[in-house]
Design the sequence.
């Protein structure tokens, strides 16, 4: 099972995402990436955001764990709250195939194809203040 840490970074009730085009379909990914062999989650997350979008972050609390099971590919998403320590988000085309950086309004997040697909949980937690379980179990992730 692949492990993918990612960072929820908010500004003015907007979520930082990376926009991709897969087969003509738009996907908005919460920034993060895959672990290198022997790497710790927090270290990998900091490295990925520095490499891909030039941000130094402080990893805060773990918000969600979610499993995605596909044929020949299983992923455990570890979604952390994070805070920008320094830098302004800017794509590094040597490290990512993302088209652009997008700040998605949380109040309309259900209108976007989000990766991982935790739109409802983000909206409930950050806008509605609802308590939630950290472990979400298996989530439905549409693949384009």
Sequence:
């Amino acid at each position: 099972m692949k492990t993918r840490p990612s960072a929820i970074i908010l500004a003015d009730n907007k979520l930082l995402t990376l926009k991709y085009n897969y087969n003509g379909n738009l996907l908005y990914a919460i920034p993060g990436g895959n672990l290198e062999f022997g790497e710790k989650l927090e270290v990998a997350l900091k490295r990925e955001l520095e490499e891909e979008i030039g941000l130094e972050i402080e990893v805060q609390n773990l918000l969600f764990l979610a499993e995605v099971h596909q044929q020949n590919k299983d992923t455990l998403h570890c979604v952390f709250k994070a805070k920008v320590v320094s830098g302004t988000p800017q794509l590094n085309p040597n490290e990512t195939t993302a088209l652009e950086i997008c700040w998605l309004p949380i109040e309309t997040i259900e209108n976007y194809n989000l990766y991982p697909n935790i739109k409802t949980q983000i909206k409930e937690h950050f806008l509605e203040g609802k308590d939630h379980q950290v472990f979400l179990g298996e989530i439905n992730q549409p693949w384009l």
User: Anything to note?
Assistant: The CA atoms of residues 2 and 36 lie 10 Å apart. The helical segments are 41-53, 119-126.
